[in-house]
Amino acid sequence: MSADEHATAMPSLRMRRRAAATREILDAAEQHITENGPAALSLRTVARNLGMTVQALYHYFPNRDALVTALITKAYSDLADAVQAAVDAAPEEPGVPRLVAAAEGYRRWAVAHPELYQLLYGTPLRYYSAPIDGPTTQAMTRISAIFQRELFGGFTAAQLAAAETAPVSASLQEYLDNLPQNNLKELPAAAVAMLMSAWGHMHGLVVLEVFGHTSFLGDHQAEIFRTAMCDMLADIHRRIPAQVGGSAVG
To answer: 10 Å Cβ neighbour count for 115?
Structure first.
């Protein structure tokens, strides 16, 4: 590699320093949220904890919304990493379907990081609006794609369209048909309904636990969650036909 090519490939010292400072700010903001909750986040406090002035912090994040967006994006990415790692490790635990492993990875991350989970799924921060189709949406889509893959992997579009679900209204079908290209657009309406129901079931149980509403179950919360996810998965798969139009599928 020539000197010019090496200079092109290697980020400049200034860029590396900026990246390091940005990571340090995000780490400090995460720590502040962990200790005080998402609603207490303030640029002034984060800057003070780092020994910076607010004006210096503005060189990296021009306002609170920019910092919140970066924090949410990172939290979604960390959660997606945890879910994917749980799926990758699933073969090590015989009898645990990959979808259930994904759900347990989701639950473990939420229980281990309750304040960051609240940043993602708790009461919206006052005056904050995530950028439309921005990095937070893209990061959330990655998690959805993992669950979609593990829930419906191995089934054809014809099987999913023929699943036993309540009839989909014409207005909902039209709405789904007009969605921009994303994970949901690839699914028949019946599969969208099942995916959202499964997501709500899983997410609801996790929210109850993170907010302490199932603490009366003590150390049995993980077992109850696994049983619920196994039952949910079995119910969904029972509703998807093994054959369509008299011909075996899959």
So the answer is: 19
Q: Are 117 and 212 in contact (CB under 8 A)?
A: no
List per-residue pLDDT tens for the chain, 250 residues long.
455 555 556 778 788 888 999 999 999 999 999 999 999 998 999 999 999 999 999 999 999 999 999 999 999 999 999 999 999 998 766 778 999 999 999 999 999 999 999 999 988 888 888 888 788 888 888 899 999 999 999 899 999 999 999 888 889 888 887 776 556 667 888 999 999 999 999 999 999 999 999 999 999 999 999 999 999 999 999 999 988 765 444 4
- 164 vs 200: CA distance, rounded Å: 19
57 and 137 co-located in one domain: no
Distances (CA, A) of 16 to 23, 219, 247: 11, 45, 59
Domain, as residue range, for 131: 79-248
Judge whether 72 lies within some domain: no
Element (H, E) at 243: strand 243-244
Task: Please give the model's pTM, rounded to 2 decimal places.
Answer: 0.86
- 152 with 178, same domain? yes
110 lies in the same domain as 45: no
CB 38 within 8 A of CB 118: yes
Rounded Cα–Cα distance for residues 164 and 236 (Å): 9
Note whether 16 and 100 are same-domain residues: no
